[in-house]
Amino acid sequence: MYLDLKGKVAIITGGASGIGRATALRYAQEGVNVVINYHSREDEAQALIEAIQSYGVEALMIQGDTTNKNDMEHLVQETIKHFGEFHIFVNNAGIQSDIQSHTMPIETFDKVIDVNLRGTFIGCQLALRHFMENKYKGSIINISSVHEIIPWPHYAHYCASKGGVKLLTQSLALEYARVQIRVNNIAPGSINTPINAENFKTEQDKKDADLFVPMGYVAEPEEIASVAAFLASKESKYITGQTIVADGGLSLYPSHRNFEHDALLDEFTDEINVKTK
Fold first, then answer.
1. Taking the C-alpha atoms of 127, 130, 134 and 137 in order, what is their torsion angle to the nearest 10 degrees?
2. Which helix (H) or strand (E) holds 124?
């Protein structure tokens, strides 16, 4: 538990499902009042609001497109109207698509960049403006991807957008460090979320995905939410401009599986009775 978070207010974009949902619930457990931005999943957002409120904190749900500056300004205005302030802003909204680069319509490329990078900047800008005007030592947390590091065939647009988020995070962190506004980034690896549902259709798909993670399993969103709670708290007050890669070791040797090594590792873990899940 991070006691300093109790009573704070957090805005989470793309908060109705996946990592956003898990982060909202974790913040609620910490005593944080939560504002959820959602795009189209009103039923999921409403169910989440009720779950958040069960922890004894307040919650709002506000529909909006994160690439639309007016919608994002409305999100911030409604938050301030209800709570008077906010202290944490999580840029979680993101999209991806599987398509070969030589056949990719430029509109598809633009859309992914628009949501993942431009939308993140809009959120950062509005949060920074609020923190500066009120002299808050606020925390901005961007959700990127391990693919800001690892190239991914058929996902050039996605990788480019997430690489951009990494450097955006660093640039803003340096720009606002003197006023104690922190901007950090989380780069999740293989996570069991709706955006990755196509990759985990069957049990065999899940087993195959596990094989590509050195720690031996695909993580749940709650493991990323734990990092988001840490970065929002005073326990991380000397950390800014950093990317915390939460990927089970995936980025240590991406796409280079040594199955002889894996067989030896399996023997070792069996001998010492280590469970990977």
1. 0
2. helix 119-134
- Residue 35, strand partner residues: 11, 60
Q: What is the pTM of this model?
A: 0.90
Among residues 136, 158, 217, 238, the one annotated as catalytic is 158
Average pLDDT over residues 154-183: 98
pLDDT of residue 193: 84
Q: How far apart are CA 26 and CA 232, in angstroms?
A: 11
- For 70-81, the DSSP string reads HHHHHHHHHHHH
The Cα 19–Cα 191 span in angstroms is: 9
Residue 136 is a catalytic residue? no
Q: What does the alpha-carbon distance between residue 90 and residue 35 come to, in Å, rounded to a whole number? A: 10
Answer for the pair 229, 26: CB distance below 8 angstroms, yes or no: yes
What does CATH list as the number for 3-271?
A: 3.40.50.720
Q: How many CA atoms lie within 13 A of 16 on its CB side?
A: 18
CA distance linking residue 20 with residue 32, whole number of Å: 14
Per-residue pLDDT tens digits for 62-107: 999 999 999 999 999 999 999 999 999 999 999 999 999 999 999 9
**What span, in angstroms and rounded, lies between the C-alpha atoms of 258 and 252?**
13
Q: How far apart are CA 125 and CA 72, in angstroms?
A: 10
For the chain, give the number of residues.
277
